[in-house]
Amino acid sequence: MLHGRLGLEKARIPHADRHGLVWLDRGRLEVEDGCLRFVTAGGGDLAPGDYQIPHQSISIVLLGPGSSVTHDALRLLARHGCALAAIGTGAVRFYTAPPLMPDTSAIARNQVRLWSSPQKRMDVARAMYALRFGEIVRTRDIEVLRGQEGARIKRAYVLAAERHGIRWSGRNYDRASPEAGDLANQAINHAGSAMTAAASVAVASVGAIPQLGFVHEDSGQSFVLDIADLYRHDVLLDIAFGAVKTAKGEPIERVVRRHAAQLFRQREVISGMIDRIKQLLAPDAQAD
C-alpha cells in the first residue's frame, strides 16, 4: 500500500549535511504520486537518474543552474515547511527564495526582541565579535567595536597573504570601479559576494529577518552581512588569496566562484552559519 508513496523503490538523495540541505542542479524538480522527485540527465554533482527527495525531513532545497521547478513542487514544499532557494553553482550566488513559513516563529521573534533593545543588540554584536576573534571585548560602543574589527581585519589580510604566498599592498576598493584594484583586491570583492550569497541561504533557511542587523544597519540585507562577516577573516580570505594563487591568467571572478563553491562544501560553511545564527538568536540566547 505504501509502495511509491514513500519512494522506497527509488534512489533517495541524502541530506548534504546535518541541517538537511539538499543541493540540486541541471534537472527538473517535480511531483509524482505525491512524492517530490528530481530528474536529471547528469552533468552536475548527480549522476543521471530519477531521485526521490525526502521533503518531509529536509530544511531547504538549493536549486542550482540548469534546473526548473513545477508548481506542484512549490506547493508541496510550502505545505511541508521546506524552503527553496535559487542559487549559483555551489551557492556562490543567491538569486531568490520564496518566503519561508516555518513551524515556529521563535527565531524571528527573538531576533526582534534582541534587536529592539539597545543593550541586547550590543550584546549580540559583542557575541559576533567573540565568535570571529575568540575574545570578549569590554566596549559597549558600537563605533569602538567597529574600529577594533577594522584593525583586526587589516592584520588578517596580511596573515592570509603570507599564508598563501601572495604579495599584498593593502586593501584598495573603489565602489565606482571595483575592477580597478589589483588581482588580490578584486578577488576579495568577488569572494565577498560569494560569502554574502552563502549567508543569504543560511538566513533564509532558518526564517530569520535579513533587514535586522546587529552590526550593519542601513542595508536591506544587514543581518545577512553580519553573518557573512563572521567568516571574513578566515574563509573569505582563503577563498580570495587561494584563487589569486591558482588563477594563471583565467578571469579572477570565475576562479573565485569555483574556489568558493569548493570551500563552502569542504568546510560546511552554510551549516556553520546556520549553527551560529541559532546560537545568536535562539530563544534562550542572550537571556536576561
From TrEMBL:
Name of protein: CRISPR-associated endonuclease Cas1
Reported cofactor(s): Mg(2+); Mn(2+)
Top class in the EC scheme: hydrolase
Cited InterPro entries: Cas1, CRISPR-assoc_Cas1, CRISPR-assoc_Cas1_C, CRISPR-assoc_Cas1_ECOLI, CRISPR-assoc_Cas1_N
Family under the similarity heading: Belongs to the CRISPR-associated endonuclease Cas1 family.
Keywords: Antiviral defense, DNA-binding, Endonuclease, Hydrolase, Magnesium, Manganese, Metal-binding, Nuclease
A single MF term (Gene Ontology): metal ion binding
Organism: Sphingobium fontiphilum
